[in-house]
Amino acid sequence: TANAPCSDFTDQLIFTLTKNPVANAGPDQVACHATPYTLTGATAENYSILSWEYEPASAGTLTDNNTLTPTFTPAADFAGGQVTFTLKAIGSASCGSQVATDIMILTVTPQLMVNAGPDQLIPTNSAAEFLGTVEGGSGFYVWNWSPNELFVNENVYNPVTVLLTEDTEFTLSVLDLNSGCVGTDKVLVTLGAVVRPPDAIAD
Length: 203
What we know:
The chain is mostly beta strands. It has no helices and 15 strands. The chain is 0% helix and 41% strand. A four-stranded mixed beta sheet has the order 2-9-8-5, with no helix packed on it. The chain has a four-stranded mixed beta sheet with strand order 11-15-14-13, with no helix packed on it. It starts with 21 loop residues before the first strand and ends in a 12-residue tail after the last strand.
């Protein structure tokens, strides 16, 4: 209270509290060899700038790395394994010097090495037989051969075709049930006369 003849004087001070940044990189995830994968599940609060870093740097490339959903493309020559991602959130306003971080592990599966077998030469109006193989996966697979209509059963590793009347390229696709990754290979069947070695004739 002021003394006479002065009147009372008041003033105000607004004190704003800024919350610290929070970063959550999300759960660990699994990606397929050489296939673009968008990271999901990350969250952040009270930030002004977001960024992602990863190692090893040779594992692939990252786009949209200033968002919560960047896309990582494993390098074709990356054999597979773990890639460590770090999400950084820089605070806003008076908390601009504060940085929150969190990590997420992305496991890149090895390439599925699918083999549909060698190209074949068979007589016209005969059936082809295949023996598909796969390496580098979990061992739990779904097999599919196409064109589907040309197989007696297209969902086995060793199918037989119907009688063929023209040259045909077949594709084997193998789905790994554990990882969800797919590998493919092609095989060409050509129709024509099959040259056989002459039979030996006894003297």
